[in-house]
Amino acid sequence: MRRDLSFFLVVFAMVIALTLVPNSSVRSAVAPLFIAVYVVYLVIVIRFEEQYREADMGPLTLGSLVARVRRQAAAADPSAWGATLQTLLALALILIGAQIFVGQIVDLSASLGINATALALIISPFATELPEKI
Asked: Residue 13 and residue 6: Cα distance in Å, rounded?
């Protein structure tokens, strides 16, 4: 987790600093660096996967949650309807959450007098990445 967050913060700081460079050809020339950093990150993650593997959490399905509530053993293979229901429920929650998130960014940008797109570019990476790292 610390490794992932470190890479994220370093690259994010580099991107923010790069936005301050007025010359677009310099920004274009530096873009391959971000691809290289991502490749290095992938190699590190794949090479040291065993060290960072988290404890087995078991199946993360709606069926396993229902089985825990009922205090029963979860089925080895979830049913097709259960998987479909879980996917549709997740999609609905993502869409609702996205609407709330965008609305809050628009409101915050208006109250701060900042362009909503600029604020979204600053806040969105943190909002999407940090919950995975905490």
From this structure: 11
Could you give the 3-state DSSP secondary structure of residue 55? Answer: coil
Please give the Cα distance from 125 to 106 (Å, whole number). 16
Name residue, tokens 């965008």: 102
Helices (H), the chain: 2-19, 24-47, 49-52, 62-69, 80-112, 116-133
Rounded Cα distance between 69 and 67, Å, is 5
Q: For 19-52, how does the pLDDT look when each residue is reduced to its tens digit (9 = 90+)? A: 788 888 888 888 888 888 888 888 887 887 766 5
Query: DSSP 3-state assignment of 59?
Result: coil
